Transmembrane protein
Amino acid sequence: MPQKVLPATGGDPRLNTQTLLQLQKHKVILSSGFFLSCLWNLAAPIKAWALSRYGFASTSTTLVTELDWNTVINGRFLTALYEASGIALSAPLEKTRYINVFLDFMITPRSQLVWAESFAGSAGIFQMDIDGVMKRLSLNGTREVAQFNRDVVKYGATGFPLWGSEVIYDYVPPVTTNVALQEVSEAVLCLKGLPPEDLVNLVYPSALLPYNRTEDAQAINTWRARIFPDLPACMARRAELMASAASPGDAVIALAQELAAKYDLGLVNIAGHNLLYKPLTFWDGFIDVSGYKSGSVTYQLSGRDPSGVITSGSGHLDAIMDPRETVWWCTLQYVNPVTLLNNATECFDKVATTLPSFFLGKYLTLLAGNRYNDNSMFKKLETTNKITAYAYKTNVVTPLAKIEHAAQGNLSAWKTLFHEYVAELRGEPVVTTNALQEMCFVADGCFSACMNTSASGGNTLTYMRGGQCVSSVDTIAHGLVDLYADKRCFGSGTSQIQITYQSLAGTTYTVVANNTAGPMAILACLVGGRPPTTEFPTYLIDMLAQGTQASLVMTKTDGSETTVLNFIALLSLAGYIYFFTRIAFYLRKTYRWMKKMPVRKKKSQLVFSIINCSISNVIWSHYNTSMRCIGFLSFVEWHIGATQNHCKWADSITDISVDASYECALDVYGHFASPSELLRLAAYSWVFFALVFMDRMPGIAIEVKGYAVAATLLGLVPVSVLAMLVAQICNLRASVSELSWIHNQLWLALVWLVVMALLRTTVFRPYFALVIAVLNAVGIQQQPICKSSPYYRIIGKYYWCATELLRDEAMTYVPLSVLMETRSIEIGNVFDHQYFVYGLMELEGDDGTLRKLEYLDHEGKVEHPPWIAMQDEYYVRIAKGDM
């Protein structure tokens, strides 16, 4: 503490000696403190590096989950996927197993119109999963049916001679009702943008070369005129839409709408694998620096096209395959009966309207690889002479909202269900000692295809394809530990269940349940839990048997918070390097100024004032704006790190059965969490004090104990409390969706700005009065400044000093150490206890030469009060000429 130096008149000489020794010791301590303070502040970049949080951690994470048929997928993703695929929903979906999703996208027609976008860019693909069965060839159904009825008459007595000696007596005539867009060959060609000239050589080349041979081009024109008369106009309209639409997909969708409206066709189809594998991104959280919400998670089902199992090889019977068979037949089989020469043009004219119907009817009684008809999907119509007509049955699709859910079980529950079902069918008590040998799900009366005792306790599915009974062993539900063991899975319908079992005595029994659902629907329920309401085509078992061959890829991004936090930390680090540079330059400048001063007592006062000041306060006051920015950035970075304030996707996102949830969390008491956090709290509480109060407490850093009290009561204490308050406000803000447009870290910074602004108002006055009382109690008081002095405007109404240095009168002189910590004060303008506002040098004359002001050549000309010379501090007033 600086002490007054009084004249040594009278008294004990030893006492005067002791006083001088104490003063000398005090100056040594003060000098050491100043030196250490300089080192401490010069080390600011190192301290900032040690206390801040760095490391550019990746904010993007990708998780790949291999799917099984019983894998559960969360409802949030499925709801968005279904809606994006045109599948109507009355309410958000609950989580469900992948097999149910597969059924809704690949088997059951549920997509309204959106499926059509998959036809865009598909002119080079022969068969697609969204191709429907052939219910007619032409868009104009009325014209086609009339033409077919005229042309089919000639085959009534003979049947249709197809390949070699083969004669077909069954046919599926074209219809005009209950027809969907994808079930019309001409519509499919138009949607794909596939002209007949390309169709005839797509994937499987034919003998026709319409682009090279005139006769082949004529044949194609004849074929087009007979069954695709509206295709040229449709293709022209497609080209117009492609040129004007925002995307090819939009153009095809618009074309599909026009065709459906014009020709009274349905727009519901399976969604197909393109939509099933469509990526979907969810955005949650606050508005990020990118302009989007901070949290994004992208889900994408990924895998092979499941329909490849039925479209590969010889191809599947659909709206593309059936009419194309005419091309093969007319180029390979047909000959003119007179000339015995091939004539494709004549052939197309004769059979183009009828051959596809008989070709389709052929596979009602023939199973040839992928080419077959599910007999259960057709109904027999009238027989005319020797030919019989068949038609597709109408398959009712139950809306998703009306689908119920079976009870999930396990292998024990499955055994219990078997025992109870057998007892119910036999009308006998439950026998738990019976051993299941086979549960055979029978369609079309195909009991002969059951495996009976050789099934080894498994399930068998039997059904009729192309007039032949076929069986498939259940490798999907059998052995599944979490299958749905619910009697409701057996459903109701026209099929049967044959159960073969063995009693404890070794006797084999067979019992049959009639009027059950079809085999495919039962199997789907056992795995997926949906009681049968819809019949499925038999190729479902082929798709299921090959496994899902799919995975769910999830990529999540938590936002830019980590990057922004690192940026703030690095920016504040750069600021403290700037702080280091300013200190170094200031010390060099002060040293050079002191070195030029003459050696006399006043110089010792100057040295005392310099080492008595706080170098950090000097730099903060002189470069107030930049240091406030640096300090505030570092302070915000500290609080973000201390509270672990971040928004991210919940850890449960790794469980794909759980809806993705973006959560903002922070630890309100994080700044007390560990010794390292307490150290940071102490360090950044001084920054807080410097930001809010230091400019309003001139001279407080001169006295160590006063400085310690002020930094504690105006730094450490309020920060400890207010950090919890600010954190809680940020916590509450996370639950207010209306504030999501503000970046999470920006919100914290804004709250701190408001808090700091309030602390500088009268709201904080009662607490500040308490701080003043404590300072007074430890011997630190306010020294008033004379109102007539320019210091009153430059420094303020007062400055802080030790009680023993307090003077009764309002001061026109202030300690140089206080002056050094005052903004815009140039230490080089101090001379002879005066501060020359306009500097010590001035320009003289037109030649631009410099000279000292006249009165500086006569030091001591200005008389100062006697007490000035008796102080350790160097006191300075404003030069009289600048008053």
In short: Confidence is low (pLDDT under 50) at residues 1-15, 842-846, 848-858.
